[in-house]
Amino acid sequence: MKIINLIIILFLGWPSIGWPMTLNVGLQLEPPNLDPTSGAAAAIDDVVYGNIFEGLVRINEFGDIQPSLSLSWDLVNNGKSYIFYLANDVLFHNGDRFTAADVKFSFDRAKSNGSTNAKKYIFKPIVDINIIDPHTIMITLDQARPDFLFNIGLGDAVIVNEDSADRNSFNPVGTGPFKFVKWVRGDRVELVRYRKYWGPSVFLEGANFKFITDPLSAYTAMKAGDIDAFPNYPAPENLFLFKNDPDYEVVVGLTAGETILATNNRNPPFDNLLVRKAIAHAIDRSELIDGAMFGNAVPIGSHFAPNHPDYIDLTGLFPHNLDEAHKLLLLAGYPNGFNVSLKLPPPIYARRTGELIASQLGRVGIKVKIENMEWAQWIDQVLINKNYDLSIVSHVEPMDINIYANPNYYFGYDNDDFKKIIFDIESSTDAINSSQLYKLAQKKIADDAVNGYLYQLGKYGVWKAGLKGMWANYPIRSNDLRGVYFVGGEQ
Amino acid sequence: MSSFLLKKIISLIITLFVATGVIFILIEVVPGDPVAFMMGLSGSTEAADALRIELGLNVGPWARYVDWVWGMVNGNFGISYTYRVPVIELIRERALVSVPLTVYALFLSTAIAIPAGLISASRRGSLVDTSFMGVAQLGVAIPNFWFAILLVLFFSTTLKLFSASGFPGWDAGFLICLKALTLPAISLALPQAAILSRVMRSSALEVMNEDYIRTARAKGLNKNQALLRHGLRNAMIPVLTILGLQFSFLLAGGIIIESVFSLPGLGRLVFQSIVQRDLIVVKSIVTLLVFSVVFITFIVDLLYAAVDPRLREGN
User: Fold this and answer.
1) Considering the domain boundaries, does residue A215 fall inside one?
2) pTM value?
3) Which of A56, A57, A339, A355 is the most core-located residue (most Cβ within 10 A)?
4) ipTM of the prediction
5) Starting from the edge strand earliest in sequence, which strands make up the sheet with A136-141, in order?
6) CATH of the domain at A431
7) A21 lies in some domain
8) How far apart are CA A151 and CA A398, in angstroms?
């Protein structure tokens, strides 16, 4: 009998009794490294943000700025300087004490010439960092910049330790509630609760982030019980299989990803506003959302997240209307339409939406040739060399409407009025004024139909029933597990 | 025998050298900049330039080729662009999954195929033969990833006997790892076994018509004894050839099965590296695979000589 038990345990592993204190989280993409201050991969923040690393401030599930390593702050000098009051008794995972010197080191490092920080622009406006005492630091900018506080809440601005910073890509050391254990490349990253964490203690004993690329494997891994939670489940087409199962909970939220029909405004026929408006009228968003995303997405009329307080609904600006589209094309001098290419990156949302867009534009005489490409090709041809007509991509960076102020960006939108709005936003210290300006900015690019605005990419959370505290939305990319716990006692 | 070895080794080195040139040129031609890929949709150009210098991508192709080959000669395969760890370490980690998986799959496929092929051959035309070969036909026809999904749906999601995906790592224990590799190995083995059993059968049937088998039968051995004692060694030559090819194929060709089971194997590493333009990893793995194919062919040649003494004479 004992031998049989032994065989069962050796061969099948321990039977799972009670609730899993170590959470198994499924992610589709494996991070290339674990240093959020290098490179741009969202997959890095998926694992480390809020769990291993913390910044001066923290962005929460609703996109709000929360105190973190800085318990409070003052804005002085007409909004040009921030004084941060830092938490006491914070230890890095290597045992080093966190002080103002670490803040200075982290920001200087991100700003330096050799820095490979993808969001170096956050640190560029910093003109002075003054350590007032070990727990007080003053940061002075070139001008008042209200978005600075949000920006230093991003993964790119987390606080690192001087002794370990160079090794963070494979052995990350932060101040967060979870400590890095090991990374089995291609399979998983293991974290364990940091017992000397300075903040409120977390509920989980640890977490394993497991990387499952294939959508069908994501389904089988959930159903087999290998995974407790898939915060961004990669297959919206079979979400209903979990919705109908009482053992699982499905939470459809929003990401910061505006999915757009990117349009090359530089070249004819898209340099003509009439043509862009015609395309806007030809697009049927509800068909795209039902057909490509199985109903799980929110339509947008401009480049702004619908769950942001400054969002205005502009989806009614160019309602789906084929007659109007035909009329505009006739006015623009294209009574018989024209031929264009549509270059699609690999994500499934882009491929599926692309096929529907091709057929929708076909109805007004625009003949679309689809070209599927891999990411590296897409970045090379579309993003860098701007050699494209149309494309479909989701812009997942939070609050990124300012990309329209860059005339060299791949849209090729060069509009002085819009640039002025963004300039004013960046220097406005008045919250009400800045909110008005954001609304103006949304309206401006929608009026100019710079791109086709399709839908906000959903976040499809699937987890075992009884699991609480997972993020419903992705205002920034993070799977912050500090508030996650199980109720009910059974897995 | 030693001149046979020497000749083989020289041709192995030349093949490898030519291969590095071809691989390097092919990868240079592929469009897509690894740095641009790593910086994403909104990365700053300044940071991209800094990264290019850090990765040693700011020098010309000729200098990079020489660096790369010279590094490999000295056992230094370079640092992965994306993972920032030595390439050799990445390959070692992945090979610790792929090699055991390949060996496991080949073990299963030979264990099924050789007896099945021999039984079919010795009972040619019987019900056993027809049904074995019918199953083999089916095994060739069924795509292995589909078969893998069926296995997962049955054994993992319904019976919950195996985990559906992932690899615990060898420090978790041998049996646990063996268990994690079982469903993938079965999925890989089935189509290979189907092919192998058909080769075994036809090869055995061929030798059954040879004069020495007739002589053996005339001396009083029955059909099966003659086949096992005298026929098998001769019938093994084509089977060994196929086995050698299958080993090389499975080593990196398990990519789809690795994806279905989310196994961190070599196939997925190559695929991921191509997608992310981690070109140094692609180059090194492809070179390594060329090396392993050449090396396995070499081993198979030696095995030919072992099963058939006539081949040792140097022809």
Assistant:
1) no
2) 0.85
3) A56
4) 0.80
5) A70-76, A81-86, A136-141, A126-133
6) 3.10.105.10
7) no
8) 10
